[in-house]
Automatic annotation (TrEMBL):
Its cofactor is Zn(2+). This is Phosphoheptose isomerase. It comes from Leptospira fluminis. The reaction produces a racemic mixture of D-glycero-alpha-D-manno-heptose 7-phosphate and D-glycero-beta-D-manno-heptose 7-phosphate. NCBIfam families: gmhA. The gene is gmhA. Pfam families: SIS_2. It is found in: Cytoplasm. It catalyses: 2 D-sedoheptulose 7-phosphate = D-glycero-alpha-D-manno-heptose 7-phosphate + D-glycero-beta-D-manno-heptose 7-phosphate.
Length: 195
């Protein structure tokens, strides 16, 4: 296979996955955007967590809320935190309580009833994201999970599941960031009438 064919196959696969997202996830995406907007409208906090590339997605989406999503959309900052962003907390938590608890410990510290946790896991089987969702539930927080494939062990544990219908990690991650951008766009539209 030549290099052009490799590139074309990747792009076509990405397009097909995003078409499947459009065909199968639109109602859940809109509901998730509304839940995110309602949470922020009430002055509550949004916490994001994930591992590896999903950690980067968590930080990316949190930054879009704190700073702004669309260039030129001047608005107030919104309260969002990526739970993997503090290396001291991550390493101390991993050392003292185990990596499975690094996010749950922070949910306990920062989360309260009315807040929202967004867990991101391409497989749906990330033990630390599962623990975070379970902890959030005990605090009366709402939860949204960005998942892939069959949803893994996280499927059905959150208030809303956004399961990208693909078994390919790269396609799932591409779709997760697309969904994250859509949610940020919904927030800016609902809270600030910005488009």
């Amino acid at each position: 296979m030549d290099l052009k064919e490799i590139a074309v196959k990747q792009i076509q696969s990405s397009i097909a996955t995003k078409q499947a997202v459009l065909d199968h996830l639109l109602p859940e995406i809109v509901k998730s955007g509304q839940l995110l907007a309602e949470t922020l409208q009430k002055g509550n906090l949004v916490l994001f967590c994930g591992n590896g590339g999903s950690s980067c997605d968590a930080s990316h989406i949190a930054a879009e809320l704190v700073v702004r999503y669309k260039s030129g959309n001047e608005r107030r900052a919104l309260p969002a935190i990526s739970l993997s962003a503090d290396s001291a907390v991550m390493t101390a938590g991993g050392n003292d309580y185990g990596y499975e608890e690094v996010f749950a410990r922070q949910v306990e510290a920062f989360g309260k009833e009315g807040d929202l946790l967004v867990g991101i896991s391409t497989s749906g089987n990330s033990k630390n994201v599962i623990s975070a969702v379970e902890k959030a539930k005990t605090l009366g927080m709402k939860t949204i999970c960005f998942l892939g494939g069959d949803g893994g062990k996280l499927k059905g544990k959150s208030d809303l599941d956004l399961i990208v219908p693909s078994g390919e990690t790269a396609r799932i991650q591409e779709s997760h960031i697309l969904i994250g951008h859509i949610l940020c766009s919904i927030v800016e539209s609902e809270l600030f009438q910005l488009h």
